[in-house]
TrEMBL record:
Chemical reaction(s) catalysed: 5-(2-hydroxyethyl)-4-methylthiazole + ATP = 4-methyl-5-(2-phosphooxyethyl)-thiazole + ADP + H(+); 2-[(2R,5Z)-2-carboxy-4-methylthiazol-5(2H)-ylidene]ethyl phosphate + 4-amino-2-methyl-5-(diphosphooxymethyl)pyrimidine + 2 H(+) = thiamine phosphate + CO2 + diphosphate; 4-methyl-5-(2-phosphooxyethyl)-thiazole + 4-amino-2-methyl-5-(diphosphooxymethyl)pyrimidine + H(+) = thiamine phosphate + diphosphate; 2-(2-carboxy-4-methylthiazol-5-yl)ethyl phosphate + 4-amino-2-methyl-5-(diphosphooxymethyl)pyrimidine + 2 H(+) = thiamine phosphate + CO2 + diphosphate
InterPro entries hit by this protein: Aldolase_TIM (IPR013785), Hyethyz_kinase (IPR000417), Ribokinase-like (IPR029056), ThiamineP_synth_sf (IPR036206), ThiamineP_synth_TenI (IPR022998), TMP_synthase (IPR034291)
Keyword presence, DNA repair: no
Entry's Gene Ontology cellular component terms: cytoplasm
Organism (species): Meira miltonrushii
Name recorded for this polypeptide: Hydroxyethylthiazole kinase
Length: 551
């Protein structure tokens, strides 16, 4: 690598866009307001359709403002404008601009040079060349400032994460900035979502969220806070566990687990917060059973998938379930709105990717959901989780567990939890739950659960209700938490994990008690008995019957 002088903090990278200014707003005034509080860490001047003379004039005036606030400046595309400015002004180029090797040759070794990359191949090429100082990775979402972006080119956090993985190969880390559609709503989930095995984004590049705002210092401060929280949570976590591990601080999760579960169920049953509202977007097959199961488990179901009411409901929900069982266009749109509202409110989100391995349509839907929403818990049977993880040892033919057995279920849940940065619950005869550091195996349950339709879907609702209870519990006991999208980093113990485990145990122990009843003759009579036994579930029954262990 060449020794360059300028060291840039990429945390909040402002890209200018005079065409996006609110009516009547002066460009220089907007730039000064954006920088004055010290939140923006670097500025890129982006000017389209003007000649170099005018660009240089704007750049010279902009540089005065940047210098005043000690913020480094970069020029977009225009090599001659960059060269006409002092060497401390860098250049950012795209894939269709002057080839990067030539740009470096002309700029010399010391001028800062950035490159946009849109896919893994371009990222690998940038790494191999070893002549740029950082890359911009995007577009993460479709954006107003770059018309003509097609859906297929939009990376989403998961696509960005794949590019970060490719960048990781460089001996000296190549910094990277996420760009495209980032704003106060998308920033946190995107930063976390783009983290891969041992690489992470250095910051976010923002255009319209700042430039189009009448008071740009406000979004600048909010966005800087989000990046700072990400870095704080992520850095301390990464030091301890490595970049790809999810940011949970559950060091003492194995201690007194059963007592914690009992304490949480006691709190949930008597909660002064009232039954948590569980918004469930689910199949028409599972809807009624899931709603009754939620009621039996001291929760309040609402089975709405309407986009139009997502924001209103988001203010009052305790948790949401996104179940793709019989998903159509309306629910697909609804999931985007409901998932976004839940993430912004810090509410747990359960994803049930029903039958995901059965069709490419379902695969696409799940990929889409995981891109627009930060999932708190991913729940699936062996075929479903294998399909998502890319394992091919189990072929999915439908929506039920079937007879698939996995060679290494513990490794599957642990690695998926690390990769997807969420809790992962694998269901079947035995259930496995992991947060990426710990994995627990639950052996409770009854085979009748496998002989009724929608038991897995209903379990998703019970787990969501249990995690909503965990959130109320931490709030009630004033346990310190950090809200970052739907991530909740608990400094004491991971109550979301405890909550999810409480849900799994409650449902499975209820199934055993139901199956033992003399009035249960088969799967038909089992369903009402299961609802009754879940309603009658107590901390004592869980303590007495729970069969689980850390594996
Ligand atoms: N043979 C079994 N023995 C014990 N418990 C079981 C058995 N089969 C399923 N279960 C339990 O049933 C619940 C649902 O898991 P399952 O894997 O059947 O979900 P699913 O395939 O998603 O179901 P569905 O698609 O019908 O909703 C889990 O709690 C699981 O432990
Ligand atoms: C049978 C069935 N078909 C689509 S969803 C569903 C319920 C189990 O998930």
């Amino acid at each position: 690598m060449l020794g360059r002088k300028l060291v840039i903090d990429y945390s909040l990278y402002l890209v200018t866009g005079r065409e996006l200014l609110p009516p009547g707003k002066d460009y220089y005034e907007s730039l000064e307001e954006s920088l004055k509080d010290g939140h923006v860490t670097v500025v890129q001047l982006r000017e389209k359709n003007i000649d170099s003379g005018e660009f240089l004039e704007i750049a010279e005036k902009s540089l005065k403002i940047c210098d005043k606030y000690r913020v480094p400046m970069l020029i977009n595309d225009n090599l001659s404008v960059a060269l006409a400015l002092p060497e401390r002004v860098g250049l950012h180029i795209g894939q269709t601009d002057i080839p990067v090797q030539q740009a470096r040759k002309i700029l010399g070794p010391n001028r800062h040079l950035g490159l946009s990359v849109h896919n893994v191949e371009q990222a690998e090429a940038a790494v191999d060349l070893d002549i740029v100082d950082y890359v911009g990775v995007g577009p993460v979402y479709g954006t107003k400032s770059k018309a003509g972006i097609e859906e297929k080119d939009v990376l989403g956090p998961r696509g960005a994460s794949r590019i970060l993985q490719a960048l990781e190969k460089v001996p000296k880390r190549l910094p990277c900035v996420l760009i495209g559609g980032l704003n106060e709503k998308t920033a946190a989930g995107t930063l976390f979502g783009a983290v891969c095995d041992s690489n992470w984004p250095d910051g976010i590049a923002v255009i319209s969220a700042i430039v189009a705002h009448p008071t740009p210092s406000v979004p600048a401060a909010n966005l800087a806070k989000i990046v700072k929280s990400f870095k704080k949570a992520f850095d301390s976590h990464a030091k301890e566990f490595g970049a790809g591990e999810p940011p949970f601080t559950s060091y003492d999760i194995e201690k007194n687990t059963i007592n914690k579960i009992a304490e949480l169920l006691r709190f949930h049953r008597a909660s002064q917060y009232g039954p948590p509202l569980i918004q469930t977007l689910t199949s028409h097959v599972s809807s009624t059973l899931s709603a009754n199961i939620a009621l039996a488990f001291s929760s309040s179901p609402i089975m709405s998938h309407q986009e139009a009411e997502a924001e209103d409901l988001g203010k009052v929900t305790g948790a949401v379930v996104l179940n793709i069982g019989t998903i159509g266009d309306e629910a697909r749109r609804g999931m985007r709105a409901v998932g976004g509202a839940a993430n912004r409110g810090g509410k747990p989100v359960v994803l049930d990717p029903v039958g995901v391995g059965a069709s490419s349509f379902r695969k696409g839907v799940v990929e889409e959901i995981m891109n627009h929403t930060q999932i708190t818990l991913l729940k699936g049977n062996a075929a479903e989780l294998s399909a998502i993880s890319g394992l091919e040892d189990i072929q999915s033919r439908g929506v039920d567990s079937g007879s698939g057995t996995l060679k290494d279920p513990v490794n599957l849940v642990v690695s998926m939890a690390c990769k997807e940065k969420c809790l992962v619950l694998l269901t079947g005869k035995e259930d496995y739950l992991s947060n990426g550091q710990h994995a627990v195996k639950v052996s409770n349950g009854h085979e009748l659960l496998g002989r009724i339709t929608g038991s897995g879907c209903a379990l998703g609702v019970v787990v969501a209700a249990s995690m909503a209870a965990a959130c109320n519990f931490t709030k009630h006991n004033k346990l310190p938490t950090t809200h970052l999208g739907s991530f909740m980093v608990h400094s004491d113990t991971n109550w979301l994990f405890i909550g999810a485990l409480m849900g799994v145990l409650s449902m499975n122990i209820a199934s055993e008690l139901a199956a033992e009843r003399s009035d249960v003759k088969g799967s038909g009579t089992f369903i009402p008995a299961l609802i009754d036994e879940l309603a009658a579930m107590t901390p004592e029954k869980i303590v007495e019957r729970a069969k689980f262990g850390f594996v």
